[in-house]
Each structure stands twice: as structure tokens, then as C-alpha cells.
DNA sequence: CTCCTTTTGTTGAAAATTCAACGGATTATT
DNA sequence: AATAATCCGTTGAATTTTCAACAAAAGGAG
């Protein structure tokens, strides 16, 4: 566990918690670490929503696949972000999404009941964890609002430009790398891939953006 | 305040709080009640995100209007639901949405700092409120997932059927009233109103649904 | 370095959505 | 009860998106 401390102390779940207490807390929470290769399923849709996940290395995606096989990407998560926490905390019986390794990654899994309910020991830290979870879930809600703002646009062009503008604002720079390849970006924006490629080319020709692979620049 | 107790004791924010303590807590939170006529703005986009709202009577809508004037409806809220709590708890500087009265309504507004931070008095209840907020925001996140699941479908028909199916599941009945008129439903599904009307007619002709105004039945 | 796989851009045709406009129906107002 | 305002379904044209197929480019494996 020790080698993960540098990541974990930056994790929103452990905000305001002293580093020297962290190892003890992890023990009390019965935290486990697992490794996953690229494309492997970390948490499967339909399985019990009892775990709070933390990305320690690599990256993962939250996805949903409908009965037609269409993939929808809800978000991309990187260290030291938390995932699946809302489902666990809302005590949803089963997960409505899958979490997939986007590259080889190490994931910490914590049974949410260990976080939400006290265990009888000296659990001074529970209140802080619950407060942190509340903040974290609230922040995620904001991100979902952004995704809805993006996908509520009616055209591929507007969806893309809204996404890029928000990303630039977040990155605080007009030039940045996005965490998606073309198909993934299409699945995030909820549009057709070939149409998206065509629209990117058009925006380039019009001199509104520059783009090479997943590097974009707003002009 | 007394006349609102019956609603407030059912409010997710006050879960597990004894009714006899509620009035005192409301005082400590400095809760205010305001009335709004239909179509009036309860909280405006861009204003500081400091209030947690509770619908005491009537109903309200969370909406977003883009630079083209297109309205997007994020959700419809009825008593005793809470709103704007995620923005307040995430300490977002300003609201990215507006809250509008959908019919005449009474709204309780609470400054979120009174909830999140202790005031020096006998604030035994803060921990419970924070726990309740966490649960409530987590539940809202699930609802956003549902909205994304609906709007990620590529056709008006699929969006509508997904919406109706989820609504029927929620209502636990094949027949139900939705809280939207046609234009509002279109703005929730993120589609064109006239196209939506046409699609509803088509589904009726095909015998897949029955519908009169805002009453729907899945066949 | 070569072969194989995956990703990406392009194209054209089919299908769907949007848009504007209109009339009928319903609801609210005076 | 009459009038005004709003809501709703329909239509056809214009625009967009989707879909399928293909070839070029990039990346990975041996």
C-alpha cells in the first residue's frame, strides 16, 4: 500500500486526512488493489454497486452499452480520481454502467459500507470521508451537467465546439490533448464517427481549429 | 414555518431527523420561504450558487438556455424535493442553470454554508444533514445518468420510448401522467417539437402506445 | 523491415431531424 | 359567452446525420 500514498493523498476522497493516518484508514476500510490490462472490465454493468473505486495508475472509462450495441462513453477517469461512488452511496442495487480499463491500470476498491457506516473501532475519520464523498459527488454532478450541455446541442459541429471550448477552459489553454481517439470522441459526443471526422476536417479547412490526432488547438 | 412541517419531514434533506427538532434546526439554518408565480425565476443562471432549495408546493424546472435561445430542460422537481444542492455543495462560483416556477410555488431556501459548516451552537444535526446531502446528491447523479441514457439514443422514437419505459418502471405502472407538455418534453428529450408530435402519432397508429395530452400508456 | 491490425478520412446514398408555417383544438381571460 | 392566447398535430422542403464501404495512414508484432 505504501507505494500508493503519493497518489492517494491527492485523492478527493482523502482530502484533509493526514498522510500518517492514511495507511491505518486503508486497513480499516479493507481497501484492495487490483491490476487490469487494457480493455478489461473493472466493474461490470449489472453487478452489485458496492464498491467505490480509485484510479491509482493508467486510466479508465465509464461506459454504457445499449441493446443495439451502441456504446456511450460517460466519462474518462485518471489518477487520483474516484469512480462508481454515486452508485455505491445511493445504494443502487446494481450498476447501470460498466467501468473499463482504457490502458493498463491499478485500481483501489473499497466497500462503501466501510466508508458510510462506522465499524466500532476508533473511527474518527468517517465524518471526514462522508464530507469528502459529498463534495466529490457534487463535483461529478457538475461534470454531468457539462456533458448534458454538450450533447444537448443539435449538430455535430456544435457538440464538438462546445466540448472543445469547455476543455480549453478547463485546461486554461487554447491547445490541449483530449483523452479520446476518434471513435471514443464520437461515443462521448453521441454522434457518428465518420460524420465527426468530416466535421473536424471542415473546421480545419475553415481555419477554426487545428488538430493532429488527439491534439487540438482553438484558433 | 409550522405549516410546512408535513412536507419537510418527508424531505430527503431531513431524513432521520426527529420532527420535534425540525423547527429549531430550520431556525439555526436561517431557512427562508418565498413564493413564486408561474414562469418566475427562482434562481437565475449566473447568480451565486449558495442556496439549497426545497420545493414546498407547486413545481419547478431546472433549465439551461444556450446562446441560440434553445431551452434544455434538465429536470422537473416537485415537493418535497431538493434542488441546486450539487452546485452549492461543490462550491461552484455561479449557477450554470436556472430554476423556474412551472406553476405557482413555495420554495424554501437555505444558505449552504449553514448546513456544511458548524455554527458554534449545539449543532448535533450537521453530520446527519451532510450524510443526507450526500445520499441526495448521489441519487440525483443516478437521475442524470438516466437522462443521458435517454438523450444518447440517436432517434426521436428511441429517445421517447426510452423515456416512457423508464417512467413506467419508476411509476411501476404501464399508464401514467408525465410532468411535461409537448414543448417541454421535446426540450427534455433534446429534439424538435413538431418531429416529436409526428413520432407520437406514428407510435399511436402502430399501436405501441396510447396517449392523450400528457397521459401515456405503454401497450 | 515487413506484415497485419487498427485507426482515420472520404464519399455517396438513404434516412431522419429540423425548420417554418398553418389551422384546429384547448384553455384562459374579460 | 366571446375573444385572445397557447398548445398541438400536420405538412413539405431544406439540412444533417447516419450508414456502409473503402483506401490511406499509423501503430504494433514478429
Task: Outline the structure in words.
Chain A has 219 residues and is an alpha+beta fold. Chain A folds into two domains: 2-136, Jelly Rolls, CATH 2.60.120; 153-218, Orthogonal Bundle (Arc Repressor Mutant, subunit A). Chain A has eight helices and eleven strands. Chain A has a four-stranded antiparallel sheet. In chain A, strands 2-7-4-5 form a four-stranded antiparallel sheet. In chain A, α5 runs antiparallel to α6 (156-171). The radius of gyration of chain A is 19 Å and the shape is elongated. The termini of chain A are far apart. In chain A, 39% of the residues are buried. The mean pLDDT of chain A is 93. The interface between A and B is large, with 36 and 36 residues. Chain B binds a DNA duplex (30 and 30 nucleotides) through residues 154-157, 181-183, 191-195, 197-198, 200-201, 213.
Whole-number total of structural domains of chain A: 2
User: Can you say what the CATH homologous superfamily of the largest domain in chain A is?
Assistant: Jelly Rolls
Write down the CATH class of the largest domain in chain A: Mainly Beta
In which order are the strands of the major sheet of chain A placed? 1-8-3-6
Assembly context of the chains: homodimer
Share in helix of chain A: 40-55%
Fraction in beta strands of chain A: 15-25%
The tally of helices of chain A reads: 8
For the largest beta-sheet of chain A, the strand count, sense and barrel status come to: 4 strands, antiparallel
CATH fold name of the largest domain in chain A: Jelly Rolls
Amino acid at each position: 500500500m505504501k507505494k500508493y500514498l503519493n497518489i492517494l493523498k491527492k485523492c478527493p476522497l482523502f482530502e484533509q486526512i493526514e498522510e500518517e493516518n492514511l495507511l491505518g484508514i486503508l486497513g480499516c476500510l479493507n481497501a484492495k488493489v487490483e491490476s487490469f490490462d487494457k480493455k478489461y472490465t473493472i466493474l461490470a454493468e449489472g453487478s452489485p454497486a458496492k464498491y467505490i473505486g480509485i484510479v491509482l495508475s493508467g486510466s479508465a472509462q465509464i461506459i454504457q452499452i445499449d441493446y443495439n450495441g451502441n456504446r456511450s462513453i460517460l466519462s474518462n477517469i485518471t489518477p487520483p480520481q474516484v469512480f462508481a461512488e454515486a452508485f455505491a452511496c445511493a445504494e443502487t442495487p446494481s450498476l447501470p454502467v460498466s467501468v473499463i480499463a482504457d490502458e493498463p491500470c491499478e485500481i483501489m476498491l473499497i466497500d462503501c459500507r466501510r466508508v458510510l457506516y462506522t465499524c466500532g473501532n476508533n473511527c474518527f475519520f468517517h465524518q471526514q470521508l462522508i464530507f469528502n464523498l459529498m463534495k466529490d459527488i457534487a463535483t461529478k454532478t457538475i461534470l454531468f451537467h457539462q456533458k448534458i450541455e454538450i450533447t444537448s446541442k443539435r449538430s455535430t459541429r456544435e457538440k464538438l465546439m462546445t466540448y472543445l471550448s469547455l476543455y480549453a477552459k478547463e485546461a486554461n489553454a487554447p491547445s490541449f490533448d483530449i483523452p479520446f481517439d476518434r471513435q471514443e470522441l464520437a461515443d462521448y459526443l453521441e454522434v457518428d464517427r465518420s460524420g465527426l471526422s468530416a466535421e473536424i476536417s471542415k473546421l480545419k479547412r475553415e481555419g477554426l481549429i487545428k488538430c493532429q490526432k488527439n491534439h487540438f488547438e482553438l484558433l
